[in-house]
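The instructor's notes for this session suggest beginning with a concrete chain rather than abstract definitions. Hand out the sequence below and ask the class to guess, before any prediction is shown, which regions might be ordered.
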Amino acid sequence: MNIRPLGGRVLIKPEPQEEETKSGILIADSAKTPVCKGTVLAISKDVPLTVKKGDTVVYNRQNVIEIDRERFLIHEDSILAIL
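After discussion, reveal the predicted structure:
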């Protein structure tokens, strides 16, 4: 599926978060940190953006639109930093 973000949105592939602690305790989704890292796959062309394709970014997980388990759409304002 070819996705082209519009309106200042960015398509991100999230990095996997840790599923368990070092001692082996499983971490529930509700207990995971809302701030995540990911790689920019595509950006909106209709609005000038700060991020570009291939950037690794830190974003707020609460503001994502899940396309599938491997891709999210997010507005650039929800990106906290470029690494």
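Then share the key points. The chain is about 0% helix and 40% strand. The mean pLDDT is 86.
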